[in-house]
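Progress note, sequence design subtask.
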């Protein structure tokens, strides 16, 4: 956050304390408008990190969740189709 405070102080001609309060206010404003799952990315960015670091982690988690859900759906469909075809085979006997 120190690097950002220095940049804001130099660009706006304000004190470090004013810059810190400004950054915190803007950060809170932006976080209020983002989905909760992405709010920590703003904290990461303000503290000197990059969005991509946190986004990679978040996207990986989302991808894993989607994969797990897709596998569950496929398993359910497979079971239902298997039951449907086996009951039809028995009817045909």
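Output:
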């Amino acid at each position: 956050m120190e690097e950002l405070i220095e940049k804001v102080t130099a660009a706006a001609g304000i004190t470090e304390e004013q810059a810190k309060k400004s950054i915190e206010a803007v950060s809170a404003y932006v976080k209020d408008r983002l989905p909760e799952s992405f709010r920590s990315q703003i904290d990461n960015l303000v503290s000197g990190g990059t969005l991509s670091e946190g986004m990679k982690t978040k996207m990986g988690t989302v991808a894993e969740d989607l994969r797990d859900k897709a596998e569950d759906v496929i398993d359910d469909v497979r079971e239902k189709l298997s039951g449907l075809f086996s009951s039809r085979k028995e009817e045909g006997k």
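The mean pLDDT is 85. Work on this subtask will continue into the next period as scheduled.
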